[in-house]
Amino acid sequence: MGNRGFFLENLKNQNYTEAFKQTSSNWCFSFAPGRIEFLGNHLDYNGGTVLGMAVNAGIYCLGVPQDDTSVSLFSENFEDSAWDGDLQQIEPQNGKYSWTNYCLGVLVELKKRGLAPTKGFRLIFTSDLPASVGLSSSAALELATAHTLLQLSGHSLSKEDMVKVCRRAENDFVGMPCGILDQGTSAFGKADHLVCIECERENYYNLPLPPTTEVWVFNTRIKHDLVDSLYSTRHQECKDVFESIKEIHPARNFLCDCKMDDLSTTVLPENLRKRAIHVIKEQERVTSFCQGIENDSHLSDLGQLLTQSHESSSQNFENSCEELDFLVEKLNKHPSVLGARLTGGGFGGAVMAWVKKNFTHLDAEVIQGAYQDHFGQKIDSFHFKASDGARKECLLSK
Ligand code: GLA
Predict the structure, then answer these.
(1) Domain count for the chain
(2) Is 182 part of the annotated catalytic residue set?
(3) How many angstroms separate the CA atoms of 139 and 169, rounded?
(4) Of 44, 128, 182, 262, which is the active-site residue?
């Protein structure tokens, strides 16, 4: 899985001294997992409740303090990634250094709060997250950076505040208007559990994942060129439709707070009406899923909610594509699949399948084979475990 260099191999074996001995004798180290969006598509920035799952793969970050104000960032996973700068002059980067913006954004946010290191540092990253699968390596990079910088500065933050810092870094420094699903899930992940995030209140809790079930991801490797701008367009459409509804229903606080009845009393262009239907109904599906888990509902009924979510993404939110629809349809025909849906921003990317444990690698290969026969392209599949969230792994100071 992913690019495993020397550094990564030793970390995975918890062979920290071996991994870092050529680096320095004074270092600290953190880990943050990637995430799967389990249910609740495009609800986070609409004030809704979403379900995420932290996965058993992520980003590792080693921090080494420096005596001057130099800042060096390096990732074992990108060619030619080494970037050097100065603590006093942090600005957004582009081209091959654009990956550093996630880290520099976190640094800037910590600085604003007086929590950043006052001396320079080196950060070295490595990852076992499969690349470009939509598992939010960006949030994992932010969380791993935040945990390491806080160790270097000797300060601490609650998980809630850490999520706020990382989201601000992504919204303001990177320029991506995401909600808190990715950062919140990476921060609050728990083994064998989902993370439930009430986004408006920024409230987090864990919900047990039924033990007879597992999660698979099928990656189409399709990335729409305009994916960032399409995400921003949907974000804007949701804002616009909410403003129109609020004019007629001033008591509503955000789009996820609106009701289907509100739509019959508000004049809306067709595309905005469809976006609102998706968001309002998706919120109902998340609520039904959470209640269903608590009440031990039939897994097949709960799985249906995931499949309905995909249908709504495809028809109302219009962030699916032929390839994702094909995978969802094929997966849903398999008797061990409880439900399948696109996961994350959409417009390409990956499908997640919630399956009974008897779904095997061979079953996954059959799905991948059908995709290849139809589209002439090979795709990957991954089997993930629900895992613990971001953490400092260890701090050594000699
Ligand atoms: C991306 C964003 C999240 C969320 C999802 C869609 O993953 O980063 O904040 O909006 O899309 O649900």
Answers:
(1) 1
(2) yes
(3) 10
(4) 182
**Strands 70-75 and 121-127, bridge-based pairing:** parallel
Residue 2's CB is within 10 A of a number of other CB atoms, namely: 15
Q: How far is the CA of 396 from the centre of ligand 1 (A)?
A: 35
Tens-place pLDDT, residues 251-288: 999 999 999 999 999 999 999 999 999 999 999 999 99
Residue 325 lies in a domain: no
Distance 41 CA to ligand 1 centre (A): 7
User: What CATH number is associated with residue 168?
Assistant: 3.30.230.10
Query: Would 136 be classed as within a structural domain?
Result: yes
Do the Cβ atoms of 136 and 186 come closer than 8 Å? yes
Digit-coded pLDDT (tens) for 108-158: 999 999 999 999 999 999 999 987 788 999 999 999 999 999 999 999 999
Residue 342 phi/psi, 5° resolution?
A: -70, 150
Q: Domain range spanning residue 182?
A: 5-9+23-208
**How far is Cα of residue 299 from the mean position of the Cα atoms in its chain?**
24
This prediction's pTM: 0.94
